[in-house]
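User: Please predict the structure of the protein below. I'd like the answer in structure-token form so I can feed it into my own downstream comparison script.

Assistant: Understood. Taking the following sequence of 179 residues as input:
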Amino acid sequence: MYNDDASVKSIQTFGRKELKQAVKYIVTRGLHRDSGRVQQEMEEMFRSMLPPRQAVDPHRNGLWRPAIEVYETVEALVVNVEVAGLDREQLNITIDGDRLRLRGERHDRKQAEKRSYHEARIPYGAFGADVFIPFPIDADAADADYTDGFLRIVLPRLKPRAIKPRGVTIEQGQGAEQE
């Protein structure tokens, strides 16, 4: 940038306004010239802020939470869960009142191999998720399908009972005395 003594002296004779403009010029010029390096440094900085591979939220009892989509249709509540690399037997789904509870565990099948990771963003170990069910459902008609690493759970709405109108007979109460 400014390596010679003449440049340093000329910067020292600038006023505050000129110095700010010179610094702004140097910084912006440097950013344009080294944008690839700056982008790489920013990516490394953001990566360093992410939790390490095995870190879990202590409030979740050591469980990691898979990516989940929850939406409702006219007929049902639909829950899509991304849990690739599992067998159906490794998944446990329960309905407890107004909660859908999902539990399981993903094992690193090649854990014994000696590896040097460049990036590790696939969580292993026990996982869990609880989903609030916002309306009454027919738990007996619930359905789940596990295909291509996605678990799809369909919880049908409870159909309202048809109540037929009927008359109610009014009887003479015994608590009222007649004179």
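That's the full token string. The chain has three helices and seven strands.
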